[in-house]
Amino acid sequence: MSRESSPIASVICSMLTFACNRRHNGLQLENSIRFYACGVSETVNEYLHYLGLTSHRKTAVHALRSLACEAQDKIASCMAISTDVAPILCIDNLDMEERIQIATVGKQNRMFHGTWGYIHIPSSDLMDSLNPNDLTLTAYHNALKNVSSLVIDPNFFLPNDDDQEHHKLVVKSQIAQVMYKYVARPSHPKGRHPLHPPEVELISHKKPEIHMLKLMNESDNSAEGIGQVMDALQHQTRLDPADFFGRLQLIDGDLGTAQIFNAIRVLRSPSEHCDHSLNNISFTLGAAHTLWNIAHTILTYHFGNSGLMDVLGVWRYLEALGIPPEKVAQKKDFTKMLQYMEQVHEATLWYCLRDVMGHHDTVIQEELPIIPTAKWNYMVDKCYDRFFSHEARRAARGFPKLSNLLTRLQDFSTVIEANRAMKRGDIGRLINVWKMWSIMTQSLPGLTHYSAYLPRLILLLTKILPPSLGKLIRHSILVSPSGRPNHFVAKDFLLETHNYWLKYFYTQGGIGTQIDRLQALFSSNIPTLRTMFDSLRLDSGAKHIQQSHKPLLTLRGLKRFQQMAQSNGILTINSSSGAPAPVEIKNTYIQGLILLQEEISTKANELGRFTMHLPFDEQCESYPSDPEDQAEPKGEPNKSPSIRSGSPSQYSMDED
Description:
26 helices, 6-stranded mixed beta sheet, alpha/beta
């Protein structure tokens, strides 16, 4: 029998077996769940059930309910108190509209506010490499008690000599990639500049073990709402409040969730009961949301005004590449935003390389020339020295047009490096970028809360927590869902992907938008339903290929970009005749250092906001307060960490 007719024979045999005995329904039950989740109408399902290809729709509902119960039992067993370390939780808010076709009293269209997430069980290889004594609740609280005496040194966020050399290799690898893809190829690959920077701290690409939680109700984004979420999490684990809140629990979430949680913890403190004070719960910022928000702020900072045709903002570069500028700055698709920023960055590097090589007048061809490897490396080094070195930025001071370009190249390079480090699974490279962003967020507009929460996360991971506990958190920030190297995503990004599939199955169900059905049947079974959906292609004889979309510059786009760059003279010092002089954009990294030095010199305990909301003084009468939230109580001793305010020569504002 041929390979093509083998599935047909198997299906025919299954249909006959099902017709003789309805309990032999393996294929039919699988198809009924698939069709129910993918939006097949009940009429079509009844016809296929009549032919013996699927089970009844009620059978599919009962099967999903049984799978949901099994998933909830799995959650309870994984979160059992017998485990040494509680699995890490990842949660996010979810808003959906429940529509009613015929509105009546008590049945109206309403907005559902909920919270959803999953538990992540660290791999056994990671746990074997950690010291169990550093993972206890006692070790966690002992580490936080030392925060009150911690000397916050701005050097914690500044690069040392090794970090500066590594950042230099990062930028050169970005230049080398553009050189290799769009400009020229070296004659011998061996000996050329590497296309990828050196590894710092790589995470294992073993497929993670995650289990979805049941969708939970949340009244609103307030302290009361997050309190309801905490109670719902404790209820799903089937643990007593004292057991759930009485052990160390790590949670990943976005900045808004962390702020609301800190608010309710302050309201409940001090308290003798662990389920009231919430001091044993530690929140970690999601890497994806951090990247999206800071990258969007950097993009808008350099975007410019499209109404002024003489302004060389990012909008003009996007327009030259055929990308609608007005759609990039919108907070709708952050993945495309990062791809567009990478295209602008690589197109600018491509033009800089052609200028360094003196090829502006040559015709752009699809076939790349081959040059000696020594010359290829020399051009990469020359491009770095001319557009990324400290000397180049100092020389460009006083010339706003060129200075703005070099500042944007520096800022965009951090976004590109953070995105590539996350895909690579190198948490060490990502933390190096976070340290730079900790300085830049002090001056970037609109990032007031990140300017405190991001340095706090770095202090926790590198200075405050025990080494093994810090490693556990670092190596749990990124995961590889498929178990393949170079295919890592942040855990909150993975949750956003599951949110998409939840809404997809929810809207394709064809039985109306019932939140109860969404909670009871679909939320706990999303990984199973997605696997069954992907297996449709495999069962039909085709291959299921997971594509990695990489932004590429087309030949036509490069030609149009060159026309724009030459007509506006983007690499020249002075503006064209008749054009108004552009306003110089401040270097956010240097400006952030200046602001930090001003805080240290004028406000003794201002950097205490870097450790604010850490429960390091749960035995004390007061907590460090946010100056934006409440004033410091009079007569109370200041428990804020001390600040090391070095002399101006120690923290020089020069980029060297």
